[in-house]
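Readers outside the structure-tokenisation community will struggle with the description of the input data as it stands. I therefore recommend that a typical entry be quoted early in the introduction. An entry of this sort, consisting of the sequence and the corresponding backbone structure tokens, reads as follows:
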Amino acid sequence: PGRGSSWLPPSSSFFPDLPCMLYQGRRYAYKKVQRMDPSSIQRGVRQFKTYMSLKLDQDDTQFPLNDSKEIQRFYKYYCENLSRTSEKQNFEELARYYQVASALYEVLRDVTNNKVDSEVMKRAKVVEEKSAHFKSYKYNIVPLNFPGSAEPVVELPEIKSAMDAIRNIDGLPKPHMSSMHREGKSIWDLLDWLSLAFGFQKSNVENQRENMVLLLANISTRTSGQEGHPLVNTVNDLWEKIFGNYESWCRYLHVSSRIMIKYDDTELKKQQLMLLHIGLYLLIWGEASNVRFMPECLCYIFHHMAKQLNQMVEESYFQPPPGFEAEGSFLNIVIEPIYKVLQKESQRSKGGTAGHSSWRNYDDLNEQFWSEKCFMKLGWPWDLSADFFHQEGRSARKPKTNFVEVRTFLHLFRSFNRMWIFFTLAFQAMLIVSWSSSGSLSGIADATVFRSVLSVFITAALLNFIKVTLDILLTFQAWGSMEWTQILRYLLKFFVAIAWIIILPVTYSSSIKSPSGAGKLLNSLTWNWYNQSVYNFAIIIYMIPNILSALLFLLPQLQNIMERSNWRAVILLMWWIQPRLYIARGMHEDIFSIFKYVFFWVVLLTSKLAFSFYVEISPMIEPTKFILDQVVGNYEWHEIFPFLPHNLGVVITIWAPIVLVYFMDTQIWYAIFSTVFGGVSGALSHVGEIRTLGMLRVRFKSMPDAFRKCRVAAHKEQALDVRSFFCVWNSFINSLREEDFISDREKDMLMAPSSSSNLPVVPWPPFLLASKVPTALHMAMTSKEGDDHELIEKIKLDKDRYNAVIECYESLKIILVCLLLDYNDKRIVDDIDKIVRNSMQNNTLLEDFKMAEIGKVSNTLVKLLQLLKSEPTDDTTERKIVNALQDFMEIATRDFMKDGHGILKDENERKQSFTNLNMDVIKDAFWREQFVRLHLLLTMKDSAMDVPTNLDARRRITFFANSLFMKMPRAPQVHDMISFSVLTPYYNEEVLYSSHELNRKNEDGISILFYLQKIYPDEWKNFLERIGVDPDNEEEVKGCMDDILIWASYRGQTLARTVRGMMYYRRALEVQCYEDMKSEQDLGGDESARSKAIADVKFTYVVACQLYGMHKASKDSRERGLYENILNLMLTYPALRIAYIDEKEVPLPNGKMEKHYYSVLVKGDDEEIYRVKLPGKPTEVGEGKPNNQNHAIIFTRGEALQAIDMNQVNDLYFLVLSLVYQYILHFVLSRITILKNHLK
């Protein structure tokens, strides 16, 4: 129905003087819908037919049933106007105009029974030829292939520069005309050239073309160019981000990079070659499907394809590699073989139930490309006989690499071995010191005690031996494919651990003069050799590796350099400390962060050990010695350990809980110290300073200045008007009203004036000025004559009260002047104003006015404002306004002013004063806002401390206010910010609640709707107020079920709630971008369209609806409802994109059917934009959710990606938006490459 009637608004706007055509269009639309769905089964069809029937019944008596001549004349006139329409036109508008022309011709043929004259047919043919481009070409964000498009996004200078850069194909070898004709392609830019060279899919090329343009455009806003080469630094920046991982991979494998850029080339040529390589990588990434989870495999593929690319460029001869001539050949030759390997490995996993050693996952396969052996084993194109590809008939299977998971509780010790070793050694040392004669820490100065404490290194050697043994046992299954250097490292560590177990006890025993027990036995092995220093030397040698590790830890920059170094000497030095892997190298924090980390744990562990020593261990020593010295000849109670000497059973029993608490109380100390340190850090960063509405009111006036400091870049310190903050504040309050967290009155109290009215004071939101004016009026009423100065000073004691009085007076004067049309009436207002100002200047206010009557003036004014708030609908209401205004003026002059009797004297007996009013002012939104504000200031007699009443609204408001005072890096302007996307995976959950689900009662007789009404009573009341429904009228409430479904869905875990929350990002960007342009004085009349264009460039939201295609084709009512609800979301939010996996059966030459899978992106009214073929069903490999995200990630845009689950809602969008691009700008982009391109 929507598509059938989409021509009506444009035709109406083009030719409003021909309503007959509209009637015929409605009539034909009704017939067409009736023919398509006679039983009104589809959603919305019945409503459409009902509406059309009413309109046709109204128009039946006005227009003739058939007037073919008039309709044909109308069609000719329309086509003539369309031909004169400028080609520099908005793409969407032109497409709609041509759609109107097609619809008009369809109506014309129906009316004339296909009997149209030859001229009309000729015009229709021309229109059809011109509209073919619009029908075939679809675009996502930027209409790149539409010549002459005047879309605002295309007019952005950074977009134009990026488009010009990728369209530079001068100097590249030309493809053979035969191949171009065979593929039906023409070369417009670098990506078209690469597509012909390597057989990439057309849709993939179109997708990555836009992706590349947006990347260049966004980066160029933060980089400076050179004269004549505006994108030089931009391309270099993108180059470093894209190929950072590839260059690192090449250095790791000690192979030369295949990217050949000659530095003696011109800047334009170098830029072209760099963009050519960037485009190649993006095209590979765009078709890689599940292989995107293997980034080093992508590096391998690019490495070889870049070599082939360089050969073509250097030889200046276009020759695609063998087998890559046809479109889609890259997918078939390069990606599909790897996908089949992944698919077979996934089948071996048996849904994750098989043992970890029996199958290979993404990481295991990707690790094959961490060794230079991959070049020899895999070759190029792929050597399908290699073990990597699991050829059929082979019994041998490639084993796991580097790591095989072995599930055992022994991981509790192995994974946290440093913690166990430290606490064990500390416990042993404290026990030795406590057992000494002094029993205090000072006893460690005693040589004997100190020598005993040094025995902890023997314990350390034993625990290290256990750890090394576990390393071997738990990695043994990976030894079949592990590098021999790693195996050697494990064995050497094992033998070294054994050696230290022998060396340390022997040297320790030799350092004691008269050893006893085990020490005496060990000393006898060394022929009673006595030397105190040898044990000390052994300890020093034993500690050397640990000392080096500690130094590297405390010098993170040095450690980062050494870990990333590919020098063989450094590799050998680092080899002993940790195994050499490609990933997780050089990821250490800066030295200041390390210092804070070390300081935190030193303080924590010092406190923990001190507590353990003085409270847990020392008090137990004397009782333990006493128990050990006791001799028990006959047990009077049950004897548990009858053969243990010295009552060791009792000692073990009383020490067991002490030891248990000793090892477990670290978590308690961590909770205490994290709370303390977190509180101090939060206080220094000003986190959560505003906790109540009272604190918000106190700090509110400093919020505009805080907003200025947050929003303006450091090099742009110009002062922003307070209304810039008010614009953002009002947008935030409006969102609270849209979500029904506040009522209409609360919204009016929280809103600030949307535009300036030349007031001498700052018009703060009314909730800050509540009760100020009534209090001032009461002061004036109780004042005595002659106390003018005292009255003014009393009012000035509260600055807000004084400003509120000034604002009320000035606003009243402005309203009256704009409301009155008669010159004499305006003169009366001016005369009264002069009297008031003279009284204020001469301090005779109480002498010239009867302050006891000011309450009556206020009440009359309130009645007038109440009428002005209500838009008049008839003459009766207008007469009421006139009467109320006359009453106000009469009371003000006759009762309130002592000498005002002559002011209202009518000069004309028949013409009364204040009857000629500008009623259009009442309908204007700006003036209605002024009426409401003045009415609130006069009537709010309480303090409004409970506004808003909704707890969630309070939480959001205080959080928004806190975000302005938090210590954060300053945010750049929207035009200069980091571009990013949000990706939400969706499977089969609810999009919107249905009426049946809301009203279905459970076993307790409670429905979801009833439950929501009871737990959100204020929001339900606000919702009914917003849609204008009486809560007591149940029939009227039931008639608004569509609105109720949306209200309830926004309070459940539905996709609609998440989409609404994420789309707040876009609204925030538009608001902030508009304010940026105002601050830069960059207003050219099209700021709204430009703000939307910049928001499109900076933000993209994609929902990965895995089963959208199946829901679309399904006949099940629930699944069909999910499809229609998602479609409605796309219509509600035009910037929303839906990505799904489509499945189609394609006939083979042998007559069988084969399933093909595609990644599809749609927008708007289910308009397909891209369709990229996949090597197979992506969700069959690995887990469903990450693969659902992975197939859709190619449709995201920007330099960063935020993954949001479906059950999350973005209710703090201004803060989160600021945090996102501040964090990325200051802490991420300086360290890593484009996030989504590497999936790491």
Remarks:
- Residues 591-629 form the longest helix (39 residues).
- Residues 197-378 form one domain.
